[in-house]
Amino acid sequence: MLEYVQQFLISLVFSIVVESVVVLALCVLLKKEKRIAWLAALGTVCTIPYVWFVFPTIFWYSASAALVVGEIGAFVFEAGIYKIFGKISWRDALIFSFIANAASYFLGIVLLS
């Protein structure tokens, strides 16, 4: 269990860094306020514990189901954070959330391989 918690903490820091950098880059490209990048850290801190600890418990019978539901839930929740606190359109919020989450997920897979 301790090893799993250590992996979680590494993933948390990794996701915060990757998603914040991605959102900052998107802010520059889309000419949005750069402060929105801080919301990536907030969103990650709010969602990653559910992806790692809650959904695997609920979907104990299927790691794939836990991953899919957890990632979709994180994507939607984080888009809501961008929309509400970043005061951006739903379109931009969904783009920010999708690209940031995809980047941290796939970069994590690449680095672990």
Summarize the structure in short.
By secondary structure, the chain is an all-alpha fold. It has one domain (2-112).
Protein architecture, described:
It is a single chain. The chain is built from four helices and no strands. It is an all-alpha fold and 113 residues long. It has one domain. The two termini are 22 Å apart. The model has no long low-confidence stretch (mean pLDDT 94).
Helix and strand sequence: HHHH
Q: How large is the count of helical segments?
A: 4
Major sheet characteristics: none
Please give the alpha-carbon distance between the first and last residues. 22 Å
Q: Report the portion of residues in β strands.
A: under 5%
Total number of beta strands? 0
Helix content: over 70%
Q: What is the residue-averaged pLDDT? A: 94
- Compute the number of structural domains: 1
Structural class: mainly alpha
Rg to the nearest angstrom?
14 Å
Molecular shape: globular
Low-confidence stretches: none
What's the arrangement of secondary structure elements?
Elements: H1 2-29, H2 37-58, H3 63-86, H4 90-112
Helix pairs in contact: 1-2, 1-4, 2-3, 3-4
Summary tags:
mainly alpha, 86% helix
